[in-house]
Specification:
The chain is of the alpha/beta class and about 160 residues long. It is about 40% helix and about 30% strand. The radius of gyration is 15 Å and the shape is globular. The N and C termini lie far apart (about 40 Å).
Length: about 160
Amino acid sequence: MAYDITIYTDGSALGNPGKGGYGIVLISGKYRKELSQGFKITTNNRMELMAVIVALEQLKYKGCNVTVYSDSKYVVDSISKGWLANWRRNGFKGKKNADLWRRYLEVSKGQNVVFQWVKGHADTPGNLRCDQLAVAAANSQNLLDDTGYNSAMENNMDFD
């Protein structure tokens, strides 16, 4: 049996780079789960992508029919327009956030994932809730290190 999962995601960076966070709302039938986490220094694009990854990591079964709603053109277009497939073929040479894109490819294996872009800060309740969660996480005291961002900065790599 394939489960139908609806996921809303959003990322936030207070300054870009700056403190950041992601927010997630997962819905499956009558079940709803909200997740968020903040980071000491990161970028908005990393948080947008991290939200999708962490949401997919929550799925307990393969073969789910997953619809991801995101206000990130960066994430939605990269996947929906085939850019990610090209980056992968080219070994992610010169691509930002390669660590997260590789992680996305792993976690999305075996899932039927489709993306829907939604206008940010508009009338989509799930997206609005994710924005609240992401901003609250970025402003929290429980901030983690974004090790992928930190590693890139140490190696003088360009981000966002």
